[in-house]
Amino acid sequence: MNVRPLLALPVVALLLAACGKSSTSLGEGGSVITGSAGAAGAHNAARELIKCDAPVATMALVENPNGYSYSSSYQLPSSPVPLVRLLAQQSGCFRVVDRAAGLKATVREQELKDAGILRKDGNTVTKGKGYEAQYSLTPSLTFSEQDAGRQVGSILQAIPYLNKLVGAAEHVKMKQAQAALLLTDNETTEQIAAATGSVEVADLGVGGAMVGKLGGAAGAGWSNSNEGKVIAAAFLDAHNQLVVQVRALQAKELPPEVKRKAQGG
C-alpha cells in the first residue's frame, strides 16, 4: 500500500480550505510570545505560558557559543535571547539580570563617572551594587524547512478537478523548529535542568496562510515571518517544559527587589 497519498491528504484539505483567502489566518499579527514583564508583573503574556508562584534565583541569559541554526535569508534577529528573556521574566520563575547591552551601559556610566564627566555627589551608579547571576540559561535552536509541495502536487495532478491546485501546492512547506534550554547553577557549575520544545506547521504559501497554533501580538522581532513565529512557539514550548523542573528547586537567597510605588500612589 502506498502511504504517501494518505499522508498528503491533510495538506490537500488545507489547500482547498485556503483557496480564495487573501490574508493570513492563524499567526496573523505576531508571534505566540507577546506582552511585557516588569514591576507590574506579566502583562498580556501568552495564555499557554506556565508560571511559577515565586522566583527561585537570579538568572542571566547566555548566548549559545555555537550560534543558532537558521538561514539569514529569513531576516530574523541574530539571537533569540531577548525572546527567552521575556519568557523567563513573565513566568516569574527568575529575577533576570542583564549580561548584554544593559551591562555594557552600566559599565560605561561608571567609566564616565571615574573620568570626572558625571557628577560624583548623589550619583546612584556606584560600584558594588550589581546583582550576581545565580543561574545561567543557555538556549539552542535548530530550524528546518522541508519542501512538501512536489509530493502534494504530483498527487493532485492525477486527481480530476483537483489538478488545478498543483500550482498552489508547489508552495507548501513544512516548517519545524526545535529549541532547547539548559539551566546551570553558577555556584557549582552543575547543569540542574534541561528542556526541549518543538513545533511543526504547514506553511501553505497561499496568501501567506499558515496552519498552526501561533496566535499572539508582538514578539521582539520574531513576528514578521512564519519562520519567526514557529521559532517563537518552540521556545515557549521549551520554557514550559523547563518550568516543570524549576518548580522543584528550592529558592536561593535573593537580593532586594526593585522598589515599587505604593498601591494607589
What is the CATH domain class? Alpha Beta
Low-confidence parts lasting 5 or more residues at pLDDT below 50?
1-29, 155-169, 206-220
Strand order, biggest sheet?
2-1-3-4-5-6
Number of domains: 1
Shape verdict = globular
Number of strands: 6
CATH architecture: 3-Layer(aba) Sandwich
The average pLDDT score comes to: 76
Strand content: 15-25%
Q: Briefly note the CATH topology name.
A: Rossmann fold
Question: Please, how many helices?
Answer: 6
Structural class: alpha/beta
What's the short version?
Pfam families: CsgG. By secondary structure, the protein is an alpha/beta fold. The chain has helices spanning 4-18, 81-91, 101-114, 149-157, 166-169, 226-246, and strands at 57-61, 94-96, 135-147, 173-185, 191-203, 210-211.
Topology (SSEs and partners):
Elements: H1 4-18, E1 57-61, H2 81-91, E2 94-96, H3 101-114, E3 135-147, H4 149-157, H5 166-169, E4 173-185, E5 191-203, E6 210-211, H6 226-246
Parallel strand pairs: 1-2, 1-3
Antiparallel strand pairs: 3-4, 4-5, 5-6
Helix pairs in contact: 1-4, 2-6
InterPro entries: Curli_assmbl/transp-comp_CsgG
Protein name: CsgG/HfaB family protein
Organism: Pelomonas lactea
Any key phrases for this structure?
265 residues; 18% strand; 28% helix; disordered N terminus; Rossmann fold; alpha/beta; Curli_assmbl/transp-comp_CsgG; 6 strands; 6-stranded mixed sheet; globular
How would you characterize the overall build of this protein?
It is globular and about 65 Å long. α2 (81-91) crosses α6 (226-246). By secondary structure, the protein is α/β, with parallel strands linked by helices. The model is unreliable at 1-29, 155-169 and 206-220 (pLDDT under 50). It has helices at residues 4-18, 81-91, 101-114, 149-157, 166-169, 226-246; strands at residues 57-61, 94-96, 135-147, 173-185, 191-203, 210-211. The longest helix has 21 residues, at 226-246. Helix content is 28%, strand content 18%. β5 (191-203) and β6 form a beta hairpin. This is CsgG/HfaB family protein. InterPro entries: Curli_assmbl/transp-comp_CsgG (IPR005534).
